[in-house]
Task: inverse folding
């Protein structure tokens, strides 16, 4: 044994370490580069629309007047989708993780995952050809009975191709995302905490309120935000379902438009400044999604002390 | 405020597998009873049948009777939720709710009973329970902080405070010190000594010195071999079990000759 034996190391193992850390670093940098590239492309291409004189922009009143109705439309559709999908998804996830017998649970989980495998154009076709027609009597009822609420103001669309229908279709599309993520989180609830609640004399639902939901809260928020990302960016289904138009408060009349569908419907025939305008709209959507994700992270970090990670 | 437990002809099964066979034992009120025995002998499993916590494990079931002052825990129409609110449990690893503050952890069980409590009553209960668990002086200035920020021994005493806040008849402890250092262990043992003035305490432990220190009566469980059911070999005064047991297996175990 010489004193140098400590300084000698297994060459192959060290090389593997270096290759792996290099690959991981490259992957991390690649993500940043792609993100930066997309942002840069959007900004550069959008500048002409942002600096153009107002009368050259579609609608003739400038970019801001053009964009804000479809921003609101995008948010309305996404919010409808989340309001419908989140409670259902959490309920289904809890049923699978804590209530269903094991055989049924795995079958149901599989079916939910299948929902995510259906292409969005199929959802769009289903929404436009089937759901819109079937649901329009319900819109008539809403207009007649709840019409005093601005969001249900009549007359209801005869075709049913409204922002509410689009939101419902979106909710079905985001359901599997929120469900499967929430289910994974709920299944990871430490047995210790579940038993702590049960040993205090909690019923199953009380145990879920005490142990499962608080533990899963950051995960649920992340799942909802991923769902929101999908709902905000979904193009094909909205383009097919929604009979678009000017911004209207009523959810059961035709009208409203989302950014993604606006871009998809107009891009093929666009040229010149119109292309810039659409890309600027894409930039706005990018910023909205970024903002939503940052807010979600802030909400999660606010409760870090109580997250159970320590 | 404490009741005795009498177990008659209890068998515990996991599915078809008989895990614990034919246990008969009387657990006195306001005393500490320790369960000792080698790993896998069914003492923790048996402890869980005393407040029906074994039902959390799929396929687990029992035959026989567990009488709490004469009322069968497994009688028709008995709700396991009610059973557990009368017979509290402290686990091997400290498990305060990580999303709750120290104060809310103590009140967690009480809030389940839907009792509307004024803030003053709740404060008094928090103080009383934490003092009962010898933790008040250490945490009184940080009741709003998360329970997971405490040391392991403090967390375990918080769990004991949470258990006694609901004023149970019996407290079951499943190796409550096995994850703790010797100083924290001593704190818990002192606490167990105080608790028996008011509660019936049953403790499972791997540590024979601990059983000798804290318990009034000791029950020795053993297993004949892998795949065989665990059995209660002998139960008696702790002093008798450790100095003059009637069974050869007990003597071998407590003297360290096997295990």
Result:
């Amino acid at each position: 044994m010489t004193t140098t034996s400590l300084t000698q190391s297994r060459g192959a193992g060290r090389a593997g370490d270096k290759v792996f850390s290099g690959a991981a670093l490259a992957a991390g940098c690649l993500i940043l580069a792609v993100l930066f590239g997309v942002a840069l492309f959007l900004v550069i291409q959008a500048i002409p629309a942002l600096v153009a004189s107002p009368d050259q922009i579609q609608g003739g009143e400038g970019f801001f007047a053009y964009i804000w109705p479809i921003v609101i439309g995008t948010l309305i559709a996404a919010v409808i989708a989340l309001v419908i999908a989140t409670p259902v998804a959490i309920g289904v996830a809890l049923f699978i993780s804590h209530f269903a017998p094991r055989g049924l649970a795995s079958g149901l989980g599989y079916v939910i995952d299948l929902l995510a495998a259906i292409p969005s154009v199929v959802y769009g076709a289903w929404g436009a050809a089937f759901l819109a027609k079937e649901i329009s009597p319900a819109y008539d009822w809403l207009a007649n009975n709840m019409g005093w609420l601005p969001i249900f103001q009549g007359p209801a669309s005869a075709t049913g191709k409204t922002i509410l229908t689009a939101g419902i279709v979106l909710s079905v599309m985001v359901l599997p995302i929120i469900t499967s993520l929430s289910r994974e989180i709920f299944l990871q609830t430490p047995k210790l905490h579940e038993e702590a609640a049960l040993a205090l004399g909690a019923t199953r639902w009380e145990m879920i309120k005490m142990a499962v939901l608080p533990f899963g809260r950051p995960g649920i928020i992340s799942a909802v935000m991923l769902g929101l990302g999908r709902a905000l960016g979904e193009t094909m289904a909205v383009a097919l379902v929604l009979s678009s138009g000017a911004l209207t408060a009523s959810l059961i009349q035709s009208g409203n438009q989302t950014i993604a569908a606006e871009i998809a419907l107009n891009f093929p025939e666009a040229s010149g400044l119109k292309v810039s305008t659409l890309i600027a709209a894409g930039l706005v959507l990018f910023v909205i999604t970024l903002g939503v994700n940052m807010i979600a992270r802030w909400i999660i970090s606010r409760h870090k002390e109580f997250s159970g990670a320590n | 405020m404490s009741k005795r437990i009498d177990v008659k002809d209890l068998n515990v099964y996991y599915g078809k597998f008989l895990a614990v066979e034919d246990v008969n034992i009387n657990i006195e009120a306001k005393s500490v009873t320790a369960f000792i025995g080698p790993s896998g002998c069914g003492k923790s499993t048996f402890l869980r049948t005393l407040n029906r916590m074994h039902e959390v494990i799929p396929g687990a079931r029992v035959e026989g009777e567990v009488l709490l002052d004469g009322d069968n825990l497994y009688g028709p129409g008995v709700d396991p939720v009610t059973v557990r609110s009368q017979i509290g449990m402290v686990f091997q690893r400290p498990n305060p709710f990580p999303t709750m503050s120290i104060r809310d952890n103590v009140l967690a069980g009480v809030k389940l009973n839907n009792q509307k409590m004024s803030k003053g009553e709740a404060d008094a209960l928090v103080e009383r329970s934490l003092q009962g668990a010898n933790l008040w002086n250490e945490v009184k200035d940080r009741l709003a902080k998360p329970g997971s920020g405490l040391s392991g021994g403090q967390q375990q005493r918080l769990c004991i405070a949470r258990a006694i806040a609901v004023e149970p008849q019996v407290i079951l402890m499943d190796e409550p010190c096995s994850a703790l250092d010797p100083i924290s262990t001593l704190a818990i043992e002192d606490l167990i000594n105080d608790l028996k003035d008011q509660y019936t305490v049953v403790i499972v432990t791997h540590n024979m010195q601990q059983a000798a220190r804290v318990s009034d009566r000791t029950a020795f469980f053993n297993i004949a071999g892998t795949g065989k059911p665990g059995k209660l070999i002998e139960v008696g005064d702790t002093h008798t079990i450790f100095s003059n047991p009637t069974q050869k297996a007990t003597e071998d175990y407590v003297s360290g000759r096997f295990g």
In short: The radius of gyration of chain B is 18 Å. Chain B touches chain A through 32 residues (CB under 8 Å). Chain B has a mean pLDDT of 91.
